[in-house]
Amino acid sequence: MRHIAIIGSGPAGYYTAEAAQKHWGDDVRVDIFDALPVPYGLIRTGVAPDHQSIKAVSRRYEKTALTDNVRFVGNVTIGESVSIGDLQSLYDAVVLATGAPNDRQLGMPGEDLGNVFGSASFVGWYNGHPKFAALEPDLSGRHAVVIGMGNVALDVARILAKTENEFAGSDIVGHALDALRGSNINSITILGRRGPHQVMMTPKELGELMHLERASPRVDPADLPEEAEDAILEPGLRKSVTHLRSFAAIPESVHADTPIEIEFDMYASPVELLGDGKVHKIRIERTKVESGRAVGTGEFYEIPADLVVSCIGYRTSPIPGVPFDERAGRFANDEGRILPGLYCVGWARRGPSGTIGTNRPDGYGLIDKIVEDIDSGAIGGGRKKGREGFDALVEERALEVVTFRDWKKIEEAEEAAAREGAPREKFVDIAAMIAARS
Ligand code: NAP
């Protein structure tokens, strides 16, 4: 029998569990740990609430979760009540699938001003992550600035622009819907430090901006390179640039008819946030792109900013004793191997890139590595106690573990509390989640 501990119940964690099960069948026991009492990580608290079709992948994870040899162990923070060393003594392999839950810092003056948020906290707020539920962003101003030209920036801009009607069928949490209902924001600037050929936004997500009820996207035609230059781009990026070209062609009459404008300000690198306790303006340096890099031109300007959300990427949380690559913001690893018997997968391994689906080959690839290490004798010597040993630890330390069965009760309560047409109303408080299982 092989015993595997996976820390993190998001996509990377569940695909790894699925791969373990495919490989060993009934000869494996997998325990999936999560600090929250609820599973699915980024699917629940990262994927935008109006992207329910992406969130539906959790049904596949549930299939894995419901098999006898895979177990969800919620409400246990590894590194606090249980150490990595504890798990290493109990399981043949310990896999860190902890994602990248912390914001990369802008590293500029004014970053600590009020109403400036990183995307982890802002997205966590509208998605009901308990850590960020009390964020209370002030949406009373007119100007929002979203920094970054990736899909998270698009999510944030779209959520700020949607009407209540457009959230029908989504699982946006009640406190965010209430705040958005009272929002005064009518200008959303997306700041990109490079140009159209360097956007990280994908075509489907960009295309959604064309179908918003009360908002229209604006691109300055002067920012677009000659159309012939698009030919060298890989097809996905070419499609994204085609969307930007169509945004640039939107007639003024359409902008005049939509109360909210989503403006792309490209070749624009933020250098300072200005305000008096709360942010009011952002100082920007005009850039040009040289050899793929944004280079400042020495030309500066300011734009109003009552709310700033920086969507410039994420970092993994370090765990004491686990080698960490500070520069990359993830665990130091060689194709998922950190130390003998200790592995990482997903964003904790490769950094915050790719789609949910990218984690599938990542998880399957990692199980291949673990099998290699077992076959070569690098790990797996001596019989490990696995979940039986962990259960003894739970007794000894009086841990309050939330099981998958408990989660199904929490889920039922969330579904019962849903507004009309919504799939669920999430609990945003850990104590309320735990209380709902009984
Ligand atoms: P991302 O795709 O890496 O984009 C980050 C953006 O931030 C880039 O435009 C980057 O510009 C910019 N940036 C970084 N540092 C900056 C700085 N100091 N000043 C100004 N701009 C800066 O990251 P993400 O948007 O956080 O997304 C993370 C991953 O999740 C991506 O793989 C994304 O596709 C995925 N995701 C997918 C979906 C979906 O499929 N619907 C939704 C959300 C997220 P440079 O390129 O110039 O560095």
Protein architecture, described:
This protein is of the alpha/beta class and 438 residues long. It folds into two domains: 2-101 and 316-435, Rossmann fold; 103-314, 3-Layer(bba) Sandwich (FAD/NAD(P)-binding domain), CATH 3.50.50. Helix content is 32%, strand content 21%. The protein has helices at residues 11-24, 42-45, 52-55, 58-65, 84-90, 119-126, 151-161, 174-181, 203-207, 235-248, 252-257, 347-350, 359-375, 386-397, 404-416, 430-435, and strands spanning 2-7, 28-33, 70-73, 93-96, 102-103, 116-118, 143-147, 187-191, 215-219, 260-265, 268-275, 279-290, 293-304, 307-310, 314-315, 324-325, 330-331, 337-339, 342-344. Helix 1 (11-24) packs across helix 4 (58-65) and helix 1 crosses helix 13 (359-375). The two termini are 33 Å apart. The model has no long low-confidence stretch (mean pLDDT 97). The structure holds NADP nicotinamide-adenine-dinucleotide phosphate (NAP).
Which spans of ≥5 residues are poorly predicted at pLDDT below 50? none
Strand order of the largest sheet: 3-2-1-4-19-18
Number of H/I helices:
16
**Helical proportion?**
25-40%
Q: What is the annotated CATH architecture of the largest domain? A: 3-Layer(aba) Sandwich
The major beta sheet can be summarized as: 6 strands, mixed
Q: What is the general shape?
A: globular
Strand content: 15-25%
Rg, Å, rounded = 23 Å
Distance between the termini: 33 Å
Question: CATH superfamily of the largest domain, please?
Answer: NAD(P)-binding Rossmann-like Domain
Quick one: CATH class of the largest domain? Alpha Beta
Write the CATH fold name of the largest domain.
Rossmann fold
Count of structural domains:
2
Which structural category fits the helices and strands? alpha/beta
Mean pLDDT: 97
Bound molecules: NADP nicotinamide-adenine-dinucleotide phosphate
Q: Tell how many strands the DSSP assignment holds.
A: 19
